[in-house]
Fold these 3 entries.
Entry 1:
Amino acid sequence: MTCLQCGAAVSRGDGRFCSHCGTALPDRPRIAEDEWATHPERFDAASASPEHASAMQRPAPAPALGTTVVAPAVFLVFWCVIGVVIIGGFAAAGGAMALFPVLLVGAGVVLVGKQIRTNLAKARAPVVRLTAVIIDERTEITTRGSGDDRSTSTHYYATLQLRDGTRREMPTTGPLAGVITRGDIGVAVTRGGDLVDFHRVQV
């Protein structure tokens, strides 16, 4: 805010007087409880907190290369080995059907290879730390196959709001989704568009 007496930009904090000229500052307008969660003054208070400064210095979690890169790579090798065996069997039989397993294996290599490249790009992406409020969470469950072959996978998302009002929905992990709560403010640690950590600040 700006001091009405000397015109200096001052941080209100908990003080009642201008830190430059000592003039009494106007009373702070009351902020409704439902507005406080994403109010600019809450962001300012969080940014001024020692917890915030500490959180900005904490190292980001290491990328989970085992599940995002190594596992798909192992599957890709297994897929290629099985594919070669199947192709050999069809080739011995001859005919146009021998092309089918070739196309199937090729499609698998392209899809898995693309996923590995995407995961590697995310793992190598720079870490970005943002002061943000968790304003929403959601879970998406996808089902593949049917009957005994049916499998499900769960994806977690968190929506962040920044001080300027910008909102971003980001994928996150199950463990992190279990500890963040709507209304939390703190330092969001992101990498490659994913929320990889969140350090709560008490304000």
Entry 2:
Amino acid sequence: MSVHGDNPRENAVNEVLTSVAKEEIAIANLIDAEAEKIKKIVDSHQLSKPDDFEKIIALQKSVAEILERLIQKQQILVKKLELIKDFDTDKKSEKFRGKSNIVSSNDCSD
């Protein structure tokens, strides 16, 4: 018997939801860390030398790249949630509610 009960489909959905929630927390922590990094750099520089501006521009590019990757990760998480929202955990059958992309052997012609 699993922690979530005897329904393996429901267990799978719960595991996906748990993993998405953990990834969302990790993304939030990464964003907070990037914000802190920016704050430290800006607070520690008086922005009077050209070198200071170059460092800040380099930092901005680095943060933008990290945020771009986090956005891509976020899109993957949304797709995971969209996939499981149509997963019927009340039935023991192998069907999804709504549209199904599963092709049976009857659908194939030689």
Entry 3:
Amino acid sequence: MLEEIIKNLALLDCLTELNSTEWLRLSTDFTQEPDELKRVAFIKALSTHSGVPVIQIQTAFSSLTQMTLSTDAKERILFELQKTQTGATLKITAFQQRSIFKKMNLESLSISRAQWNILISRFEQQQREHVTRFFFLSTLSSIKRVSFDNLSDAATLSREQPARKGKRKYQEEEDKDISTTKRVAQEYREDDGINPFIFASTVKNPELETKLEATGVRVGVPLSPATPEKGYPHLMRTPGKTKVRPVCEIDNAYRLFKPVTPYGKVSGKDRIDVRKASQARITSALPKLVFDRAQPVQFTPTRESILGRSGTKRESLLALMRESAANVFRAHGATINSSAESRSKHWAHIVTSCLIDFLEATPEDPEKEIIPVVPSTAEANYNTLEAIELFVRHKLLNKDTDKIHIYVKPIYSGESLIPDVLVYKLNWSETNKKGETIQCKELFYIGPQSHYRLTKSMHQSIGLLRDTRETDLPSEEMQVDENSNPNIMFR
């Protein structure tokens, strides 16, 4: 019975309220249901629909079913239910009056009262001041479990268009069994590219160094601080005065550097020069662009969050941002001459969509909106996928750990909307082969302006550093190298 009531509630108009008679009938239906799980689900659904808190409904139903309850007491309880429900209705009405919705066809989206209440609740939880198109459609897509593209198409229908013969409806997608072995992407390129890594460490590990050298890594190169450059944190230089930048750090002990990617204007193994980018030029070239600089954000993927995202169709970032990533690069002064070069520019997720819903991420500054994507070269996007995302996915699906905390900090310079660097910090705990619980930390520097893609041998080098967790912990069992340069420590 309660399941049928829940289904009927979803069919009501978003501004339709329950009256006193209906509240009384619902309290009786609730009391007569013997299944506790169904009772809990019913109260939650009723709360989501009406906007009345769960605790208020539970307390009210407990009192309304008492035979000794006076008429005056009953009326007061019903009045408070109605008062709270009316407050939720006024919130929905006010929310729908926001300017963002004046250019949307809300009727075609078929948003139920419960869905409006969830939208408003998430809006308030994130302490937002303005409703953006991205927030609205992404949140609604998550609530309805439907494609962002379909919602975007429906929302932008002109009000002047003739009505469709059949009103567009969206069915909630049923949960599906997801195979944990589903192939999500090709791990690194099968290439014979060189390995330009330089290894630096605060501990001595001869066995590891030998293995690294076999993959092409240069070991034992003394590094010293280099003259800082915009967009390159923690630069070092070799005895030959070659500037190198950090690529990754594993467990505060092992670090890999590579030569700084030179600036260039065409695709290749170069870095796109955006140092002269100006906000005025970007706005003039891309008046439709809906985008701002991404802010630091943190999120914690789990095995459950990955399985929940499997099979979910990604939203069209072109539809979302209103411009292609290639056009953003052009507005920053990049020369893009062919369609192939255009396709090598991506909107890259910094809140990884295959690991977690971006709505579960938390901005470092609660007053800032979460911007989950940045313009990036394809190579940088693949570097993130291959070195970080697939690793995290494997760890969680393999049940090596139950969660991994990820913090992402975009670093910008000048007036550019393309980050110089994305800093990824990963933290988690796991049990090694000795049965010891160890704390694991990783730090990666991804360059969204760079066309350099990590090669197979470079990924093998990173894997060797990660494998040290299964042998010896450097902090406990390895001798500290007193001759190592303290300046290579970076944060």
